[in-house]
Amino acid sequence: MSKQISQIATLKIQRGSDRNAPQWQTYEVPFEPGQSVLDGLRWLRIHKDPTLAVRFSCINANACKECMIQLDGDTVYACTARLEPRAMTLTPLPNKKLIRDLVTEIAPPSERFGK
Amino acid sequence: MTPDPIAIDTDVLVIGSGAAGMYAAIEAARNGAHVLLADRSLIGRGGATVMAQMTVACALGEETPDTWQDHYADTIAAGRGLCDEALAQLLCEDAPDCIRELDHWGVGWARKDGHITATMAPGHDRPRCVYVDFINTGPAVSKTLRTAMARNPSIRKAGDLCIVDLVVGDGEVTGAVAYHLGTGAPVVIAAKATVLATGGLTRLYRRNSASANMGGDGYALALRAGATLIDMEFVQFFPIGHLAPRLVGMDPIMWDPFRYKLGGRLLNGRMEEFTSRYGSDEDGKYVLTRDLATYAIIKEVEAGRGSPHGGAYLSFEHCSVAALRAAFGPVIDRLAENHIDLTRMPVEVAPIAHYHMGGVKVDATMATDVPGLYAAGEVVGGANGANRLSGNAITEALVFGRRAGRSAAAMAKHKARPTVRLRDSIAALDLVRSGMGDRDRVIIADMIAHLQAAMADGVGPIRTRDTLMRSRLAMVDLKGNLSAQPPGRPGAFDLERLDWFDLRNMLVVADAVATAAHRRLESRGAHQREDFPETLPQWQAHLAVKQERLGLGISGAPEGSKWWLHEQTN
């Protein structure tokens, strides 16, 4: 295996279900260059905090388009944004109803449960 | 403390919104049924359909003369003697009709000279696979079906709705217990007929080409409802899944369409062509079937001739920039963003869990052996035997989805008002509403990773009795460590609880795959037993798995194959 040297990203993540009273949690995530922000969030769920809520389905293909979040204030797909060896701030989409942590209501109204 | 569940009635409940589920919903609604389409994720976004890169097999015969019988012959040959002939016939015979309906709905099949064009794929005797450029087939199919559904007011759609169990009353499926992921609210759905369209089980493996929601939910739901699963030992590994360098924003099976269009060379770590060692020359063309290519790559790695990350090289270095761009346009830019220049470097590829041939036993109307329950798409077992022909997955999703929707609607017409009795649903409701679970004991997401490792290491494309035993023991341990109830209490988007429900299902399904793989004492297609390397005529038989009181029961092995003697003497 040609292992590249592991680096550390510092992810500052908005938590909770109340946009007006956000809680912040900061994690250090080891990664190899090329890995995605979603890779980092999935690593956190396995190794640090399984309650961390993030919406994703296809993991790597950028086909499902479910993993939209904001990185440092810009809207990105977590599966294509890359981890970097610096502080990175992750927040839910600002213009959608907040459900929990990084998860927002992004389904069209006709495709939501409860109609 | 325990809230009343939200109650919903429908004629037809469809679980899963890939191509099979959406087509089933459309067809059931066209036949007069009110439909509820439920998906644990967003509608039409998760699952396998949206991930399909290119080919859809169908004997249209617009460019090259073709008949469904020719497609059928190739499907049967690829299945290594184990296809359910009625299902394979349905798949091939109904395919042109479904493909043309999608064309009518504007999917945008690639055309040449006014005809829908078809490409050659491994295992086919002529160009037979239609597609949407550029590697956009799956997303285009999903979007087209979503749009077609939106035109029908009889279809209600419910995303973020996780089905926990089917409800069975007096031997019949009467609906399902679910919870809404967004709020944690318990839900009881009463349905006259239910269609499982939940897709496959590739999430059971460490390296897979699946969406996160393909943990095999449907197989577990079917087993617990009393239905039969067949051919569970046949998991298809896609031989040339992307391995290195790290590539984001692309499906790991992306090299398939590259090979369709450009050929490419499969090389070992010494940059030698090697598939001829395993009985098949490639000669720059893409002809090797998936089971043989998977076997060849694994064996080459075992012999110490793998690529640096433990796979093979795939090279397009002989292709010009112009040829690459003509074939794949914008995809070449995405590769450049990942620092991959195919004219200057090979990539590394390795087998990756891709598709499940086995699944729920159905007849040619898509009815399971439990009244009220139908299945469609990848969750169905039998049509593809021991090895699926390239391009048949989306085809079966469309054909079986449409057929299941029609059958479910017909059944619903003959039934009175749907009802779910409390006594049939209370056990599942108790799980959904439970609020006593311990939160800090173990990380279930980590247990899932351990299960994926056990499946990859012991129940992969090449198995032996010893690897299977080790994996089955690991599963027993994991099962022992899973709490009786989900952690925490119902709340908004609680992924830890979802992990619990997922692992509950994944353990049952992994057990079914390993049990069947352990029982089949031969090698055939996607099931290669190193301790039983021959393909044996008496094993041209389907193994069936059912839930029994004390665990899974397995039947269908040939007379005289006394596995217990083997266990004692080997």
Describe the overall structure.
- The complex is a heterodimer of chains A (115) and B (570).
- Chain A has 115 residues and is mostly beta strands.
- Chain A contains one helix and seven strands, in the order E-E-H-E-E-E-E-E.
- Chain A has one helix at 37-47, and strands at residues 7-15, 23-31, 68-71, 74-77, 87-91, 98-100, 103-104.
- Chain A has a five-stranded mixed beta sheet with strand order 2-1-5-3-4, with helices on one face.
- Chain B has helices at 19-30, 68-78, 85-104, 137-150, 217-224, 255-262, 290-302, 321-337, 392-413, 422-433, 444-458, 465-481, 495-519, 563-569, and strands spanning 6-15, 35-38, 56-57, 111-112, 115-116, 129-130, 155-158, 161-169, 172-180, 186-196, 229-230, 235-244, 265-267, 312-315, 347-356, 359-360, 373-375, 462-463, 528-529, 544-548, 551-555.
- In chain B, a hairpin with a 2-residue loop joins strand 20 (544-548) and strand 21.
- In chain B, helix 1 (19-30) packs parallel to helix 4 (137-150).
- The longest helix of chain B has 25 residues, at 495-519.
